[in-house]
Amino acid sequence: MNARALRRPLPEVAEPDGAEMWTDGRGAAAASGPPAGGSSGDVVLRALRTALHAAFAGLLLLAVVQMTLAPPALPAQVCAYVLSLVLAGVYLAGTATEKRFATTGRGPDPTRYGPVWLALVTALWLCLLIISPEFSWVAFPLFFLDLHLLRTAPALAAVALTTAAVIAAQFSRAGEPTAPALLGPAIGALFAVIMGSAYSALHRESVNQRRALAELQRTRGELAASQHDAGMLAERERLAREIHDTLAQGLSSIVLLARAAGSALDNGDPALARERITLVQSTAAENLAEARRFVRGLAAAPLERGSLDTRLAALCSDTSRRSAAGGKRLECVFRVDGTPVPLHAAYEATLLRAAQSLLANVLSHADASSAVVTLEYSRDSVALDVFDDGAGFDPAALPAGPRTDGSGFGLLSLRERVADLHGSLNVESAPGEGTAVALRLPLGNGLTGPEKIETEKNA
User: Fold this and answer.
1) Greater confidence, 202 or 315?
2) Which of 51, 64, 336, 416 has the most CB atoms lying inside 10 A of its own CB?
3) Is 14 domain-assigned?
4) Are 189 and 197 in contact (CB under 8 A)?
């Protein structure tokens, strides 16, 4: 009986007995996706089952031939022929039905009718054994069927009863107990039990291999999904930081400039209003360019107009100009300390975004008259310091997350950017004493930025 269709969930490491022993687990293996043809253990198991079916058919035919050479009475002989055909048909029907279930999933479930099928096969064989002792040969494949389709205790009991039936048939032929009649069936049963144990060990190893392969594939799928989710979250955070540090800051400037232009018109100063509208147009044009570069996914595109020093100097000039256009005087000064060195694009983008975000906070909240941006190069680090003489605040009162209105994201975003590059960010402020923000990124060994970090990871 080809029991490859027995589709119970694979047992744990427990001893695989009963119908679970008889299956080669193709259903489970197909679900987990092993290579076509299965493992070497599966090939051996299929070969053993094929040999068992061939042995049953061959020994049944041999028994019929031997009975024909020494026939019993004619009615018994005819009955033996009929029962042999019925036994062959039942055996073939069982294996064909189960093969169909294994291939298509249709038909009766072999895990349910297997023991019933075995009982019917055994009953037919006992009837043939009563008619002629020549059918003792069929007991040997029955031993394996008992061991494969029944659990351990019932299987051993069935093997013992089958052995007893064969010994009784041989005794009835010889008329008295003989050593061959006793030892032959007993040795055959013992050999079947040993082979069944070896089969169980081989099957257990095959099951464990399939389970390990299924677990590996499941883990690989979970890892791929987690990496995909982590990538999506990281990309969302990057997009949020870029939008806040570019588009949101630009739009905030446009709102302030537009209000200042409206105030100039209300005060009857069209020239000043026109100047501020011109600033609105230029700021909107820059924001539009930022948006287009952002859509193209060019994270370092803002640095295309010049070096980091040049961009920071231009940013300070723009900040002073926009503050004046808004009706406030803010003198923003940029300084460079140390000898400039080439920086990784990620470092340059982080430093520029930090300056943009911090100066935007100065414009919106500090009410300062002066601000100083200092870019400092040293042997092992690059630092950006932004100081203003504004109103200041209590750093302990900073929110742990963005506010409900979407504000409060600037410093959080900046901390994430700096942390990604293994840097540090310090905020010093007090009410009425201005604010100083110091950002420091590590350098060293002739490397800059992520190149150094990657080298440290691989060290």
Assistant:
1) 315
2) 64
3) no
4) no
Q: What is the largest CA-CA distance in the chain?
A: 136
DSSP one-letter code for 421 = T
| Cβ 264 vs Cβ 270: under 8 Å | yes
State pLDDT tens for residues 345-385: 889 988 988 898 898 888 888 889 999 999 999 989 999 99
**401-410: long-range contacts (C-beta < 8 A, 24 or more apart)?**
409/240, 409/244, 410/244, 410/245, 410/357, 410/358, 410/360, 410/361
Checking if the pLDDT of 386 tops 90, the result is: yes
Q: What is the CA radius of gyration of the chain?
A: 43
**pLDDT over 50 at 41, yes or no:** yes
Ranges of H-type helices in 33-151: 40-69, 74-104, 110-131, 139-149
Contact 326, 260 (CB under 8 A): yes
- Average pLDDT on 301-318 reads 76
Among 111, 70, 117, CA closest to 93: 117
List 386's β-bridge partners, or say none.
373, 437
Report the pLDDT value the prediction gives residue 322, as an integer from 0 to 100: 79
Total domains present in the chain: 2
pLDDT of residue 261: 79
Look up the domain containing 383 and give its range: 306-459
Could you give phi then psi for residue 438, rounded to 5 degrees? -115, 125
pLDDT at 378: 92
Among 286, 406, 420, residue whose Cα is nearest residue 356: 286
Q: What average pLDDT score do residues 46-75 get?
A: 87
Please give the torsion angle defined by the CA atoms of residues 297, 300, 306 and 311, in that order, rounded to the nearest 10 degrees: 110
Q: What is the CATH number of the domain that holds 331?
A: 3.30.565.10
Amino acid 402 reads: P
> Do 121 and 145 contact (CB within 8 A), yes or no?
yes
**Per-residue H/E/C for 211-236:** HHHHHHHHHHHHHHHHHHHHHHHHHH
**What three-state secondary structure class fits 371?**
strand
Q: How many residues can be counted in the chain? A: 459
The residues facing 443 across adjacent strands are 448
Q: Which of 182, 248, 183, 194 is nearest to 410 (CA)?
A: 248
Tokens 């959080």 belong to which residue?
A: 412
Query: Do residues 72 and 215 both lie within one domain?
Result: yes
The verdict on 57 and 164 lying in the same domain is yes
186: alpha, beta or left, given left = phi > 0 and alpha = psi -120 to 50? alpha
pLDDT tens digit sequence for 244-289: 666 666 777 777 778 777 887 888 888 877 887 887 787 787 777 7
Tokens representing 177? Answer: 């107990």
Which amino acid is residue 169, in one-letter code? A
Distance CA 195, CA 178 (A): 26
